[in-house]
Amino acid sequence: MDDGFGVTFTKVFEADCLEYLVTGLTPAVEYSFKVSAVNFNQEGATSDVSSFKSCVAPHNIKAPWLVETTAQSVELRWESPEDGGCPILSFSVYSDLGTGLYFTNNLDAIDVENEPYKFSHVFTFSQDLTGQTLRFKLLAANEIGQTFSDDYLEVVLAGVPSAPIQ
Predict the structure, then answer these.
(1) DSSP class per residue in 70-121
(2) Within a domain: residue 10?
(3) Domain of 23: which CATH number?
(4) Chain CA centroid to CA 153, Å
(5) Model's pTM, two decimal places?
(6) pLDDT at 164
(7) Tens digit of pLDDT for each residue in 89-148?
(8) Beta bridge partners of 75
(9) Rounded CA gap, 130 and 65, in Å?
């Protein structure tokens, strides 16, 4: 295995099995590996070099927060979570759409998922949801995996009140 700079290779494992878990890697660093086989005659030539970036799925994801709401729309913002060492590839905002059950509705996927550097969006609903309580969660993804926010935002959709009657 190299030192993460592609300079010095060091033997990190020698045994009679076909896999080894390397620990203690620095996130976001690309490490290179080469392998050789040994039999009773001697050690053979090393393989071509394979390189792997060390990272984990995004973590410490916070729920989006409310900017503005109407009876048929909600504007949400979110912050970039800890990326785990690999760049964030996409965000998704999920909602229960007022059911109080599961976060199964991926809202405006085309407008949000293809924009990894977009941190706000106005979600518009086709039906009047005045008085409905909707919950929202944020999902962040990188090349390793995806993770939901642990908590969620709860919003009651409401329009601007009418003028008082005299």
Answers:
(1) -SSEEEEE----B-TTS---EEEEEE-TTSSS---EEETHHHHHT-TT--EE
(2) yes
(3) 2.60.40
(4) 18
(5) 0.72
(6) 86
(7) 999 999 998 888 999 999 988 888 778 888 999 999 888 788 889 999 999 999 889 999
(8) 68, 122
(9) 19
Q: Are residues 69 and 150 in the same domain?
A: yes
Q: What is the pLDDT of residue 5?
A: 81
Look at the chain and report how many structural domains it folds into: 2
In a domain, 1, yes or no: yes
Regarding whether 71 and 49 lie in a shared domain, the answer is no
Q: What are residue 9's DSSP bridge partners? A: 2
Q: What is the identity of the amino acid at 115?
A: E
pLDDT of residue 61: 96
Q: Is the pLDDT of residue 23 over 90?
A: no
Q: How far apart are CA 46 and CA 31, in angstroms?
A: 16
Token reading at 48: 């071509």
Whether residue 161 lies inside any domain: the answer is no
**Structural domain for 25, as ranges:** 1-54
Structure tokens at 51: 């390189």
Phi-psi region of 127 (alpha: psi -120 to 50; beta: other; left: phi over 0): beta
Q: Order the strands of the 120-124 sheet from edge to edge.
A: 65-69, 73-77, 120-124
Q: Do 95 and 26 belong to one domain? A: no
- Report the run of H or E that residue 16 belongs to, with start and end: none
- Give the whole-angstrom CA distance, residue 158 versus residue 7: 61
